[in-house]
Fold this sequence. Notes:
Layout: E1 4-11, H1 16-26, E2 33-39, H2 45-56, E3 61-66, H3 70-82, E4 87-89, H4 92-102, H5 118-132, E5 147-151, H6 157-166, E6 171-175, H7 184-188, E7 194-199, H8 202-216, H9 221-224, H10 226-242, E8 247-249, H11 255-270
Parallel strand pairs: 1-2, 1-3, 3-4, 5-6, 5-7, 7-8
Helix pairs in contact: 2-3, 5-6, 6-11, 8-10
Amino acid sequence: MNEKYNVYLVSDSTGETLDRIFLSIKSQFSNFEYNKKEFVFIRTTNQIDKIIEECKKRKNTIILYTIVETKFAKYINHESQKNNIPCFGILGSLILNFSKLLNQKAIHKPSAQHVLDENYYKRMEAIQYTMSHDDGNKTDEFQETDIILFGVSRTSKTPTSIYLANRGYKTMNIPLVPNQSIPKDILKNSFNKCIIGLIADPHRLSEIRRNRVALMKDSVPSYADIENIRKEVDESLKLFKKNSWPIIDVTRKSVEETAASIIKIYDIKNKR
Length: 272
Protein backbone atom coordinates (compact mmCIF):
# COMPACT_ATOMS: atom_id res chain seq x y z
CA MET A 1 0.00 0.00 0.00
CA ASN A 2 1.31 3.45 -0.93
CA GLU A 3 2.05 5.99 1.76
CA LYS A 4 -0.49 8.76 2.18
CA TYR A 5 0.79 12.35 2.10
CA ASN A 6 -0.53 15.41 3.86
CA VAL A 7 -0.54 18.23 1.33
CA TYR A 8 -0.79 21.79 2.60
CA LEU A 9 -1.77 24.43 0.05
CA VAL A 10 -0.80 27.86 1.35
CA SER A 11 -1.83 31.04 -0.47
CA ASP A 12 -1.79 34.75 0.24
CA SER A 13 -4.92 35.09 -1.90
CA THR A 14 -8.01 32.96 -2.59
CA GLY A 15 -5.98 29.81 -3.32
CA GLU A 16 -7.75 29.25 -6.63
CA THR A 17 -4.55 29.36 -8.71
CA LEU A 18 -2.71 27.01 -6.36
CA ASP A 19 -5.58 24.54 -6.25
CA ARG A 20 -5.68 24.33 -10.04
CA ILE A 21 -1.93 23.81 -10.21
CA PHE A 22 -2.12 21.04 -7.62
CA LEU A 23 -4.90 19.35 -9.60
CA SER A 24 -2.61 19.36 -12.63
CA ILE A 25 0.28 17.93 -10.62
CA LYS A 26 -1.68 15.13 -8.97
CA SER A 27 -3.23 14.08 -12.27
CA GLN A 28 0.24 12.99 -13.40
CA PHE A 29 0.56 10.37 -10.66
CA SER A 30 -1.79 7.39 -10.63
CA ASN A 31 -0.81 6.19 -7.15
CA PHE A 32 -0.73 9.45 -5.22
CA GLU A 33 -2.65 9.06 -1.97
CA TYR A 34 -3.12 12.28 -0.04
CA ASN A 35 -5.11 14.42 2.35
CA LYS A 36 -5.35 18.05 1.33
CA LYS A 37 -5.69 21.08 3.55
CA GLU A 38 -5.93 24.65 2.27
CA PHE A 39 -4.88 27.88 3.96
CA VAL A 40 -5.85 31.12 2.23
CA PHE A 41 -5.08 34.81 2.78
CA ILE A 42 -1.89 33.96 4.65
CA ARG A 43 -0.06 37.26 5.12
CA THR A 44 1.66 37.13 8.51
CA THR A 45 4.54 35.13 10.03
CA ASN A 46 2.16 34.19 12.83
CA GLN A 47 -0.12 32.39 10.40
CA ILE A 48 2.85 30.63 8.82
CA ASP A 49 4.14 29.51 12.24
CA LYS A 50 0.80 27.82 12.99
CA ILE A 51 0.94 25.93 9.68
CA ILE A 52 4.51 24.79 10.32
CA GLU A 53 3.58 23.62 13.83
CA GLU A 54 0.73 21.55 12.41
CA CYS A 55 3.02 20.05 9.75
CA LYS A 56 5.55 19.02 12.40
CA LYS A 57 2.90 16.88 14.09
CA ARG A 58 2.21 14.86 10.96
CA LYS A 59 4.14 12.48 8.74
CA ASN A 60 4.74 12.86 5.00
CA THR A 61 3.83 16.52 4.86
CA ILE A 62 4.30 18.64 1.73
CA ILE A 63 3.79 22.39 1.49
CA LEU A 64 2.92 24.06 -1.81
CA TYR A 65 2.53 27.81 -1.71
CA THR A 66 1.76 30.88 -3.79
CA ILE A 67 3.01 33.81 -1.74
CA VAL A 68 4.16 36.80 -3.75
CA GLU A 69 5.36 38.97 -0.85
CA THR A 70 9.11 38.19 -0.80
CA LYS A 71 9.47 38.49 2.98
CA PHE A 72 6.80 35.88 3.71
CA ALA A 73 7.89 33.58 0.88
CA LYS A 74 11.41 33.51 2.32
CA TYR A 75 10.03 32.94 5.81
CA ILE A 76 7.92 29.89 4.93
CA ASN A 77 10.86 28.48 2.99
CA HIS A 78 13.26 29.00 5.87
CA GLU A 79 10.94 27.51 8.50
CA SER A 80 10.16 24.51 6.29
CA GLN A 81 13.83 23.76 5.66
CA LYS A 82 14.61 24.15 9.36
CA ASN A 83 12.01 21.48 10.15
CA ASN A 84 12.80 19.21 7.16
CA ILE A 85 9.41 19.78 5.56
CA PRO A 86 9.34 19.60 1.74
CA CYS A 87 8.20 23.03 0.57
CA PHE A 88 7.70 24.31 -2.98
CA GLY A 89 6.95 27.85 -4.11
CA ILE A 90 4.86 27.81 -7.28
CA LEU A 91 5.20 31.40 -8.51
CA GLY A 92 8.49 32.63 -7.06
CA SER A 93 10.98 31.57 -9.73
CA LEU A 94 8.50 32.32 -12.51
CA ILE A 95 7.97 35.90 -11.28
CA LEU A 96 11.76 36.33 -10.93
CA ASN A 97 12.38 35.12 -14.48
CA PHE A 98 9.70 37.42 -15.87
CA SER A 99 11.18 40.29 -13.87
CA LYS A 100 14.54 39.70 -15.55
CA LEU A 101 13.00 39.26 -18.99
CA LEU A 102 10.85 42.41 -18.75
CA ASN A 103 13.62 44.31 -16.99
CA GLN A 104 11.29 45.58 -14.28
CA LYS A 105 10.51 44.81 -10.66
CA ALA A 106 7.40 42.83 -9.76
CA ILE A 107 4.96 44.63 -7.46
CA HIS A 108 4.63 41.54 -5.20
CA LYS A 109 1.04 42.44 -4.41
CA PRO A 110 -1.24 39.64 -3.13
CA SER A 111 -4.51 39.18 -5.09
CA ALA A 112 -3.25 41.47 -7.86
CA GLN A 113 -4.99 39.19 -10.36
CA HIS A 114 -8.36 40.03 -8.77
CA VAL A 115 -8.25 43.76 -9.51
CA LEU A 116 -11.68 45.12 -10.48
CA ASP A 117 -10.69 46.01 -14.02
CA GLU A 118 -12.59 45.87 -17.33
CA ASN A 119 -11.95 42.13 -17.70
CA TYR A 120 -13.41 41.44 -14.26
CA TYR A 121 -16.67 43.21 -15.10
CA LYS A 122 -16.76 41.45 -18.46
CA ARG A 123 -16.56 38.08 -16.68
CA MET A 124 -19.28 39.04 -14.20
CA GLU A 125 -21.56 40.12 -17.04
CA ALA A 126 -20.85 36.89 -18.91
CA ILE A 127 -21.63 34.79 -15.82
CA GLN A 128 -24.95 36.58 -15.22
CA TYR A 129 -25.92 36.21 -18.88
CA THR A 130 -24.97 32.54 -19.00
CA MET A 131 -26.83 31.62 -15.82
CA SER A 132 -30.04 33.26 -17.06
CA HIS A 133 -29.73 31.61 -20.50
CA ASP A 134 -29.10 28.08 -19.27
CA ASP A 135 -31.01 25.03 -20.49
CA GLY A 136 -32.88 26.76 -23.32
CA ASN A 137 -34.04 29.81 -21.39
CA LYS A 138 -34.56 33.18 -23.13
CA THR A 139 -33.48 31.94 -26.55
CA ASP A 140 -35.01 35.07 -28.09
CA GLU A 141 -31.99 36.98 -26.71
CA PHE A 142 -29.50 34.92 -28.71
CA GLN A 143 -28.11 37.97 -30.55
CA GLU A 144 -26.27 39.04 -27.39
CA THR A 145 -24.48 35.73 -26.94
CA ASP A 146 -20.91 34.88 -27.92
CA ILE A 147 -21.35 31.10 -28.02
CA ILE A 148 -24.37 28.81 -28.36
CA LEU A 149 -24.08 25.14 -27.34
CA PHE A 150 -26.48 22.45 -28.54
CA GLY A 151 -26.58 18.88 -27.30
CA VAL A 152 -28.80 16.11 -25.99
CA SER A 153 -29.27 15.71 -22.25
CA ARG A 154 -26.11 15.11 -20.13
CA THR A 155 -23.54 16.26 -22.69
CA SER A 156 -22.03 18.71 -20.16
CA LYS A 157 -23.68 21.78 -21.66
CA THR A 158 -24.24 23.63 -18.38
CA PRO A 159 -20.82 23.06 -16.72
CA THR A 160 -19.09 23.92 -19.99
CA SER A 161 -21.19 27.08 -20.33
CA ILE A 162 -20.33 28.18 -16.80
CA TYR A 163 -16.63 27.54 -17.39
CA LEU A 164 -16.75 29.61 -20.58
CA ALA A 165 -18.59 32.38 -18.73
CA ASN A 166 -15.79 32.49 -16.17
CA ARG A 167 -13.47 33.11 -19.11
CA GLY A 168 -15.63 36.05 -20.20
CA TYR A 169 -17.78 34.43 -22.92
CA LYS A 170 -21.54 34.94 -22.85
CA THR A 171 -22.81 31.43 -23.44
CA MET A 172 -26.27 30.09 -24.17
CA ASN A 173 -26.97 26.35 -24.09
CA ILE A 174 -29.98 24.69 -25.63
CA PRO A 175 -30.97 21.05 -25.00
CA LEU A 176 -32.02 18.89 -27.92
CA VAL A 177 -35.22 17.17 -26.82
CA PRO A 178 -37.04 14.59 -28.99
CA ASN A 179 -40.02 16.09 -30.83
CA GLN A 180 -39.09 19.61 -29.78
CA SER A 181 -38.10 22.10 -32.46
CA ILE A 182 -35.14 24.49 -32.37
CA PRO A 183 -35.88 28.23 -32.28
CA LYS A 184 -36.26 29.29 -35.93
CA ASP A 185 -34.54 32.66 -35.44
CA ILE A 186 -31.36 30.93 -34.32
CA LEU A 187 -31.40 28.63 -37.34
CA LYS A 188 -31.91 31.59 -39.69
CA ASN A 189 -29.03 33.55 -38.17
CA SER A 190 -26.67 30.68 -37.35
CA PHE A 191 -24.13 31.75 -39.98
CA ASN A 192 -22.97 34.75 -37.93
CA LYS A 193 -22.97 33.05 -34.54
CA CYS A 194 -20.51 30.62 -32.97
CA ILE A 195 -22.75 27.56 -32.61
CA ILE A 196 -21.26 24.26 -31.51
CA GLY A 197 -22.78 20.81 -31.18
CA LEU A 198 -21.82 18.56 -28.28
CA ILE A 199 -22.14 14.79 -28.55
CA ALA A 200 -21.15 11.82 -26.39
CA ASP A 201 -21.02 8.04 -26.61
CA PRO A 202 -24.56 6.62 -26.13
CA HIS A 203 -23.38 3.99 -23.62
CA ARG A 204 -21.73 6.66 -21.51
CA LEU A 205 -24.84 8.85 -21.70
CA SER A 206 -27.02 5.92 -20.68
CA GLU A 207 -24.86 5.30 -17.62
CA ILE A 208 -24.95 8.97 -16.60
CA ARG A 209 -28.69 9.18 -17.13
CA ARG A 210 -29.36 6.04 -15.10
CA ASN A 211 -27.44 7.56 -12.21
CA ARG A 212 -29.39 10.78 -12.65
CA VAL A 213 -32.74 8.96 -12.60
CA ALA A 214 -31.74 7.00 -9.48
CA LEU A 215 -30.62 10.19 -7.74
CA MET A 216 -33.78 12.12 -8.61
CA LYS A 217 -35.97 9.04 -7.98
CA ASP A 218 -37.73 9.67 -11.27
CA SER A 219 -39.32 6.99 -13.41
CA VAL A 220 -38.71 7.75 -17.07
CA PRO A 221 -37.52 4.45 -18.64
CA SER A 222 -36.95 5.94 -22.12
CA TYR A 223 -34.60 8.61 -20.73
CA ALA A 224 -31.81 6.11 -20.04
CA ASP A 225 -32.72 3.57 -22.73
CA ILE A 226 -29.69 2.94 -24.94
CA GLU A 227 -31.67 2.66 -28.18
CA ASN A 228 -33.51 5.92 -27.56
CA ILE A 229 -30.23 7.62 -26.74
CA ARG A 230 -28.65 6.32 -29.98
CA LYS A 231 -31.52 7.87 -31.91
CA GLU A 232 -31.11 11.17 -30.05
CA VAL A 233 -27.38 11.30 -30.76
CA ASP A 234 -27.88 10.34 -34.42
CA GLU A 235 -30.50 13.05 -34.86
CA SER A 236 -28.26 15.63 -33.20
CA LEU A 237 -25.39 14.68 -35.52
CA LYS A 238 -27.65 15.10 -38.57
CA LEU A 239 -28.67 18.55 -37.31
CA PHE A 240 -25.09 19.65 -36.71
CA LYS A 241 -23.86 18.42 -40.08
CA LYS A 242 -26.84 19.89 -41.93
CA ASN A 243 -26.02 23.34 -40.50
CA SER A 244 -22.24 22.88 -40.75
CA TRP A 245 -21.80 23.44 -37.02
CA PRO A 246 -18.54 22.25 -35.44
CA ILE A 247 -18.98 19.08 -33.39
CA ILE A 248 -17.15 18.16 -30.19
CA ASP A 249 -17.30 14.68 -28.68
CA VAL A 250 -17.19 15.20 -24.91
CA THR A 251 -17.10 11.50 -23.96
CA ARG A 252 -13.47 11.47 -22.84
CA LYS A 253 -12.99 15.20 -22.40
CA SER A 254 -12.96 17.21 -19.21
CA VAL A 255 -14.98 20.43 -19.12
CA GLU A 256 -11.70 22.37 -19.38
CA GLU A 257 -10.65 20.46 -22.51
CA THR A 258 -14.05 20.95 -24.13
CA ALA A 259 -13.99 24.67 -23.32
CA ALA A 260 -10.48 25.02 -24.75
CA SER A 261 -11.66 23.48 -28.04
CA ILE A 262 -14.69 25.79 -28.10
CA ILE A 263 -12.56 28.89 -27.50
CA LYS A 264 -10.26 27.87 -30.35
CA ILE A 265 -13.26 27.50 -32.68
CA TYR A 266 -14.63 30.85 -31.49
CA ASP A 267 -11.30 32.60 -32.15
CA ILE A 268 -11.00 31.12 -35.63
CA LYS A 269 -14.56 32.13 -36.53
CA ASN A 270 -14.07 35.69 -35.31
CA LYS A 271 -10.83 36.16 -37.25
CA ARG A 272 -12.57 35.58 -40.56
